[in-house]
Amino acid sequence: MARYSRNDQAGVELPKAKLDRESLRQALELFRYLRPYRLRFGAALVSMFASSLLSLAFPYLAGSIIDAAMKGTQGIGGMAGSDRTALLLMGILALQAGLSYFHSLSFATVGQRSLVDLRRATYSRLISLPMAFFAQRRVGELASRLSADLIQIEDTLISVLPQFLRQTTLLVGGIALIAVTSLQLTGIMLASLPLVIVVAVVFGRKTRKIYREAQDRLADTATIVEETLQGIVNVKAFSNEGYELNRYHEGLGKFLTATLRGARLRAAFIAFIIFALFGFIVLVLWSGARLLQQGKITFGDLTRFGLYTTFVAGAMGQFAELYSQLQKAIGATQRVRELLRETGEVDALLGPSPPSTLPRLRGDVVFENVRFTYPSRTGVEVLHAINLTAKSGQRIALVGPSGAGKSTLISLLLRLYDPSAGRLLIDNRDAREYRLTELRGQMSMVPQEVLLFGGSIAENIAYGKPGAIAEEIEQAARQANAHEFIQAFPEGYATLVGDRGIKLSGGQRQRVAIARAVLKNPAILILDEATSSLDSESERLIQEALETLMRGRTSFIIAHRLATVRHVDRIIVIAGGRVVESGTHEELQAIPEGVYRRLAALQFRDSV
Question: Which CATH architecture has domain 6-341?
Answer without folding.
Answer: Up-down Bundle (1.20)
